[in-house]
Amino acid sequence: MNETMHAVRVYGPGDYRYEEIPKPECPDGGLLVRVAACGLCGSDLRTLRYGHRKVRFP
What we know:
Blueprint: E1 4-12, E2 15-22, H1 42-50
Antiparallel strand pairs: 1-2
């Protein structure tokens, strides 16, 4: 089994990167979901580009 996965990580407004990261551990009784596709709404895109007063980036 592959020990890494691909992810888009957000570091700040306009700063998001496609990275290979370690696969998270699945807790007992939990499950790990493989995402085949996702979508973003317009307000999500605006927040990613310019930030938002209620969103704190890492």
